[in-house]
Design brief:
heterotrimer, A alpha/beta (about 240), B mainly alpha (about 250), C mainly alpha (about 250), A: about 240 residues, alpha/beta, 6-stranded mixed beta sheet, 3-stranded antiparallel beta sheet, 9 helices, 9 strands, globular, B: about 250 residues, mainly alpha, transmembrane (chain C)
């Protein structure tokens, strides 16, 4: 269970997040949507303890990230970018993570197999394509076999096969009682994967509910998204 | 904040060691430093052999390249901390090990574990080279003086590496860190020795100099090796502490 | 010309470039003033042995600023040290905008040259005024030829840094080598004790253009020529390597 409670973040004079609250529940895939620069990544970074909130809280099973006893086995996170040094090999990258969390080397080979990177594991990360980089990020997130997954734009750069794979994979994770939170701006893709939807715009939540609730009278999730986030809409929530 | 067990600390330390060892730049830096140091030692030895024969101290000539040698270790220290910020690795690090103070401290420890043997081997190789080339002409040196000096040199290089790593962690970008540190060690510090002779012994590099240089009688207000070590260590600790404080407060 | 303007705007939008400006414009003044203050008594008493060097020492060390400039101009194209970028290198964009690699390299070198000249002129003006301020009537006369020599020394050094970085693609090595080499005890100074050939190394030869060394080996003019030859050779090597190399490798 992820609980975001009245989160505010200032950077300089700018207000990035102005008091957002939502929950991501076990057994469900929660989609976190918003236009570029709406505050999606900032929220996830605060949730993962990378950035500090100005006020409010982002809790994982009721605790801030830094107080988790075994973070890698609790939350698996893949943020934007590769998250790995360009000159290391993919396998070496996963191995030091496994080492830090006290996991075995065979687990590294397992996750490489799951994400389909076994053949490229000996290559330097700098030579990876965007899609391979995403797969490496997801592999790192899965290392500790966590109950909670937090993924920022997971399908970004993946090929169609990879997109289908991650869709079924996330559905399976949720069905076996895990919590999945993913941010995206690909509506069509998201509509096929998520159960709940949270839409953020200019640091404020503009919609929060199940996929059906948020879609409402609109034809598709995409229509609902544009109705909620375009500049000319009136007072919707 | 929960306190991780000692088993966890060992795991984190081994992960930090893994990170350093699997980084090709670490090895490249050390190997290049080793080779350049031997070349410099050769140059200094040739120059020394041409000079007044018989009165040359092997230690002094073997360690004459220390001034350049430290550049390799400065780069090593910077690479160790700044490499976290390449490709966004820092996010992976902090989602794996969210205890920031502990994480950075173990990084320094891991760095020291790698630096100490490397520094000793590299410093000793220079002295050994000078010894082989000069054993006929130079005055005999006692083995315990040699070991004491080499230990001092190793300590100095290790402290310099850690200090550089702390500056690297503060600046987070390789280029400014290299510019700042190299221009301090190679331009500002030699100049300030002329301009500010009264306090020159209290800078990290000049104080550290006394850790390995055999005492000479013609200099006034010299420090003992222990005083030099103390001052040098104090600087390193101050910078490490500042780096850790910032690291904990800052958005990653 | 458009490529040149583009290179200028690329350089000015780099955050690291301000470090280069800061060092290039202020370090010489600072060092020259400190040096003048330290020597003032001796100069007034007329016993200073280093009188003709006053001021120039700052210019010799402030060259670091343009070293940073030359290195950054190239390494910024290859470096992706931001936490958000997914490994993108600017060089791919640059070469799709300016398709001729030689033009690209020339435009970049041109931008580096122009900024180095400007920076060295600023440094000379501030250094001269600071020396005057400290020493007053005892200030030694500055020789125009030598000042032009200093401008050339700065520009050539920036271009050397530029050429080396094209070859290494990585800023660490050229920065380390060149910064250490501007120090008081440079590699080339050390080498010159072993072999006289080291006096033909670019920094030693170039320094003859404006520094007073006790054991003068080359005339200022030949010194400048030797340094220029180094720049040309390095630039040709850089152009060949850059032309042949795959961008992504």
């Amino acid at each position: 269970m992820l609980t975001i409670n009245n989160l505010v973040k200032h950077r300089g004079n700018q207000e990035i997040l102005s008091g957002i609250s939502f929950k991501a529940r076990p057994g469900r895939v929660t989609g976190f949507l918003g236009p570029n620069g709406a505050g999606k990544s900032s929220t996830l970074r605060i949730l993962l303890g990378l950035d500090r909130a100005t006020s409010g809280s982002a809790l994982i099973n009721g605790k801030p990230f830094a107080e988790l006893h075994n973070p890698l086995a609790t939350v698996g996170a893949a943020l934007d970018g590769f998250g790995a040094h360009r000159m290391r090999t993919g396998r070496a990258h996963l191995r030091w993570i496994a080492r830090a969390a006290g996991l075995s080397r065979s687990r590294v080979e397992e996750v490489l197999e799951i994400v389909g990177l076994t053949n490229a594991a000996g290559k330097r990360v700098g030579n990876y394509s965007l899609g391979m980089g995403r797969r490496l990020g997801i592999a790192a997130a899965l290392l500790g076999d966590p109950k909670i997954l937090v993924l920022d734009e997971p399908v970004n750069g993946l090929d169609p096969e990879g997109i289908r794979w991650i869709r079924t994979f996330l559905r399976e994770r949720a069905q076996s009682g895990n919590t999945v939170l993913l941010s995206s701006h690909l509506m069509g893709e998201l509509a096929e994967t998520v159960d709940d939807v949270v839409i953020i715009k200019h640091g404020k939540i503009v919609a929060d509910g199940t996929l059906e609730e948020v879609t409402g009278n609109h034809h598709t999730l995409e229509d609902a998204f544009f109705a909620l986030t375009s500049e000319h809409t009136g007072d919707v929530v | 904040m929960s306190v991780p067990s000692s088993r966890k600390i060992t795991q984190i330390l081994r992960a930090e060691l893994d990170k350093l060892v699997t980084l090709p730049l670490t090895w490249l830096t050390l190997i290049v430093t080793f080779i350049l140091n031997l070349l410099l030692a050769a140059a200094f030895t040739s120059a020394g052999l041409q000079g007044a024969a018989g009165t040359q101290s092997i230690l002094k000539i073997g360690l004459a390249s220390m001034g350049y040698l430290q550049a390799g270790f400065i780069i090593l220290g910077i690479l160790a901390t700044c490499s976290e910020y390449t490709g966004g690795q820092i996010r992976t690090t902090l989602t794996t090990v969210p205890w920031r103070g502990l994480q950075l401290s173990t990084k320094y420890l891991a760095l020291a574990i790698i630096t100490i043997p490397a520094a000793f081997i590299i410093a000793a190789s220079g002295v050994l080279y000078a010894f082989i080339r000069m054993r006929d002409t130079a005055v005999v040196i006692e083995i315990d003086t040699m070991i004491k000096t080499l230990v001092g040199a190793t300590g100095y290089l290790t402290l310099t590496t850690l200090l550089s790593a702390a500056i690297g962690a503060l600046l987070r970008r390789t280029t400014p860190a290299i510019v700042v540190l190299l221009s301090y060690y190679f331009i500002v510090s030699p100049l300030s020795r002329d301009f500010l002779p009264s306090i020159k012994n209290y800078f990290p590099d000049t104080a550290g100099y006394y850790m390995y240089m055999p005492p000479s009688s013609d200099e006034i207000n010299v420090l003992t090796p222990m005083q030099g070590t103390g001052i040098s260590m104090l600087w390193t600790l101050i910078f490490i502490t500042v780096a850790i404080v910032f690291y904990r407060k800052r958005d990653a | 010309m458009r490529a040149f303007n583009a290179e200028l705007s690329k350089l000015f939008s780099l955050p690291g470039i301000w470090l280069a400006f800061l060092i290039g414009a202020f370090a010489p003044v600072f060092i020259a003033s400190m040096d003048s203050i330290a020597q003032k008594e001796e100069i007034i008493a007329g016993v200073s042995t280093r009188l003709p060097e006053v001021g120039y020492i700052g210019l010799a060390l402030g060259v670091q600023g343009v070293i940073i400039l030359g290195v950054l101009a190239v390494s910024s194209e290859y470096l992706a040290e931001s936490s958000e970028s997914g490994g993108g290198q600017q060089i791919t964009t640059s070469l799709t905008v300016v398709s001729s690699r030689l033009h690209f390299l020339l435009a970049k070198a041109g931008a580096v040259t122009v900024i180095s000249i400007l920076l060295s002129v600023v440094a000379i003006i501030t250094t001269l005024s600071a020396t005057h301020l400290v020493l007053g009537e005892y200030t030694p006369a500055f020789d125009w030829l030598k000042l032009i020599g200093a401008v050339l020394y700065w520009t050539f050094t920036a271009l050397l840094a530029f050429g080396i970085t094209v070859l290494t693609k990585n800023g660490i090595i050229p920065l380390a080598v060149l910064i250490i080499n501007t120090s008081v005890v440079s590699f080339s100074f050390l080498l010159s004790k072993v072999t006289k050939l080291a006096l033909y190394l670019p920094d030693r030869a170039g320094a003859e253009m404006f520094m007073f060394t006790s054991d003068r080996f080359l005339t200022p003019f030949t010194g400048g020529l030797v340094m220029f030859a180094w720049v040309v050779v390095l630039f040709i090597a850089a152009a060949i390597v850059f032309h042949r190399r795959d961008v992504a490798s």
